[in-house]
Amino acid sequence: MIDNKKLVAIVQATAKRIETEKDFLTELDNAIGDGDHGINLARGFAAVEKKLPELAEKDLGAILKGIGMALVSNVGGASGPLYGTAYMKAGAALKGKAELTPEGLAAAFDAAIGGVQMRGKAHEGEKTMLDAQMPACKAYKEAIAAGKDMKAAVHEAVEAARKGVEYTKTILATKGRASYLGERSIGHQDPGATSSLMILEELEKAL
Ligand code: ADP
Ligand code: MG
């Protein structure tokens, strides 16, 4: 069961994971961007961690909203506003909720992706974080509809996100900095899709 205490623990684990993977994410961004994705996200999640004590007693929606606001205001680069909006929209979908239900998580995923698309105007297949997020969300919802529990459904989501990251190696970037590279972006996995996979993996570990 995910309540506010558990959510805070998941976010702490996510912050730790991002800090650990900072150099790897930056290396990925070096290949097709400007080499700051790990630095950007680590800075953002460090700010989130600092803010967690004042969010910890709130409901799930308010915690996620606070996380989103910290990301938007502390991360330069495209990923700050994109992830920030994703968390804020997920927060709006879970406004006032004390516990996360399987349906609540589906609504939060949908809202988060809607936020990323609203901000970034990208679609699936453009070599962005959406190529991990959208298949993951679809797999999650299908698993819930098929009667699986949240843990099993999140596992399906992680598997789909992992495939999505692999898929980004095969396609051309048409949004974000990587699009400046044209054909040369092929062969490299997208940094944002990779960090999205990590965020989902930390959720799975906690369940
Ligand atoms: P910047 O590109 O400004 O240096 P980051 O390096 O932190 O920002 O983030 C790059 C990641 O942001 C990309 O790998 C990609 O996944 C994601 N991204 C960039 N533009 C978009 C967009 N329009 N929609 C969705 N994701 C995007
Ligand atoms: Mg970058």
Count of DSSP-assigned helices? 9
Q: Can you give the mean pLDDT? A: 97
Helix content: over 70%
Question: What kind of sheet is the major sheet?
Answer: none
Give the strand content.
under 5%
**What is the CATH architecture descriptor?**
Alpha Horseshoe
Structural class: mainly alpha
Radius of gyration: 16 Å
Order of helices and strands: HHHHHHHHH
Chemical compounds bound to the protein: adenosine-5'-diphosphate, magnesium ion
Annotation keywords:
mainly alpha; 0% strand; 207 residues; binds magnesium ion
Structural features, described:
It is a single chain. With 207 residues, the chain is mainly alpha-helical. It has one domain (2-206): Serine Threonine Protein Phosphatase 5, Tetratricopeptide repeat (Alpha Horseshoe), CATH 1.25.40.340. It has helices at residues 4-20, 22-32, 37-55, 60-74, 79-93, 102-120, 130-145, 150-170, 191-206. It is globular. The N and C termini lie close together (8 Å). The model has no long low-confidence stretch (mean pLDDT 97). Residues 29, 33-34, 36-37, 40, 77-79, 82, 116, 120-122, 128-130, 175-177, 190-193 line the site of adenosine-5'-diphosphate (ADP). Magnesium ion (MG) binds at residues 29, 33-34, 36-37, 77, 177.
